[in-house]
Structure formats: C-alpha cells, structure tokens
Amino acid sequence: MADLTFSLFHPTGRPCDWMRAAQRFRDAADNPERCEYVLGIHRHIGQIDPTIDFRYQYQFCRERLMEIWPDRWILSVNIGPPNVVQSASACVVNCSAKILIAIGDWLRPCEHWDTELLKVITDPEKPQLVAVSHGTYLPDTWIVTYGIFTRALVEKYGYVAWPEYTHYGVDDDLTLMAKRDDLIVEAKHLCFPYLHWSNQKRVPDDLDRHTKASGAWETKERVLKKRIDSNFSGKVVYGCIPINVVE
C-alpha cells in the first residue's frame, strides 16, 4: 500500500450529498491511493431530521465509501451534539496523515489538487494553515475557510474546531490563532470552489435552514468574543466512536 499523504475529513449531516464531493476529490487527485477519506456522520442525526434512520445511514455510507474510495476509508461517528463542529472534531481524531483537508458537501477541488498542495506545503512536519481561494464564496475574506493544515498544527493547538461553536466561528478562531503565530501559507492561486447558498450558487436546503434557525451565528459572535478576550486559552476533550473499517 502506498504511503499516506493526505487525510480528507468530511463531516456531513446530509445522507447522500457528500458522495459528489468524495467522487470529485478522488477524480481530481493524481495519487488518490495516497489519500484516506474520513467521513463523519451523527449518531443522533434524528435530532436534525427525524426521517433519517441512523442504522440505515451508517450502512448506506459504509457501502458507498467502499465504492468511491476503496483504497482507504474511515467512517467516524460523532456521539456528541449533532453539529458540524463536533463531527469535524471526531473526524480529526481518526485522521492519520500529516496533511489534513476539511471537505464540505458543496466543496469542489482544483485539478491535480494533491500535487499542487505539495508544492506549497514544503514541510509537512511544521505547523501550517493553507489559505486557498473558494471562488465567489467570500473572495475578499481574511478567514481561511475549509482548512487545509498539517497535523503539526493540530498538535500545536490541541484542536482545530473549538467545541463551543456549533457551526460558524471555527474558521475565524483557527485563522486568528495561525495569523497571530505567522503560520498561514498563502496559496490563493489554487481554487477550490465552494457552492454556498448565500451567494446564490445553489438553493438552501433543510440542513441550511436548520443551521440558520439554530442560532449558530449568534453563538459564533458570543464565543469568538470570549475566545479573543481569553487569548484563545483552553483545552479540548473530544467525544467520538472511532469506527475504523480500513482493512
């Protein structure tokens, strides 16, 4: 088996939409056999959508992962609150590579993304957060969204997703810390388009409406202020069931 270079971790609350992203990242990679795909699902998905049965979703995701990413795949189950922050944290626990990439249902890769990223991440042993472009989604932002970072960054900070957030705010938090420590690698010449409903690239779905109605934005404003005031202090303990089905 080829040496592992990238861990793509993908927390999702949608039963099927994750498959398009997984397939696109595999198809656009020069060496997909050197990547692992870590898909994160919620044990308590019924709190978001009562029509989704966890046992069915687990089996469905397992079978599709085997088809799309047969080399290396991991199904991670978040047993905490069913939000993207908790699921992302559970995914990161299960990642094994030195370079990690956060994937979303509506994220698209650039061609040869694995080769291109290795040109800008010259030393994976060092803490680094890579700032790429997401096309028309927040084109002028200072925030590094959908993070691409080294495991060394996770080890330095002890987390990548502060658990008091529920959706928004995680990227702001990590970017401010990496900017403070001069760990951001600029790579805006690489475009990973993100189709967000806010810039009319797609129609919002039930999960988008659930997130908006949950108070996630208000939580972000409250928690981020507290984090800045405390100089980002604190320790994280994650709760997850690591289900590793790589054979």
Give me the secondary-structure category: alpha/beta
Oligomeric state of the chains present here: single chain
Beta strand count: 8
How many domains would you count in the coordinates? 1
Low-pLDDT regions: 237-247
What does this structure look like?
The chain is α/β, with parallel strands linked by helices and 247 residues long. It has one domain (6-243): Spore Coat Polysaccharide Biosynthesis Protein SpsA, Chain A (Alpha-Beta Complex). Helix content is 34%, strand content 18%. It has helices at 18-28, 54-68, 84-94, 113-120, 151-157, 170-180, 206-213, 216-229; strands at 6-11, 35-42, 73-78, 99-102, 129-133, 148-150, 184-191, 240-243. The protein has an 8-stranded mixed beta sheet with strand order 7-5-6-4-1-2-3-8, with helices on both faces. The protein is globular, with a radius of gyration of 17 Å.
Topology of this structure?
Elements lengths: L5 E6 L6 H11 L6 E8 L11 H15 L4 E6 L5 H11 L4 E4 L10 H8 L8 E5 L14 E3 H7 L12 H11 L3 E8 L14 H8 L2 H14 L10 E4 L4
Parallel strand pairs: 1-2, 1-4, 2-3, 5-7
Antiparallel strand pairs: 3-8, 4-6, 5-6
Which keywords apply here?
Spore Coat Polysaccharide Biosynthesis Protein SpsA, Chain A, 247 residues, disordered C terminus, alpha/beta, globular, 8 strands, single chain, eight-stranded mixed sheet
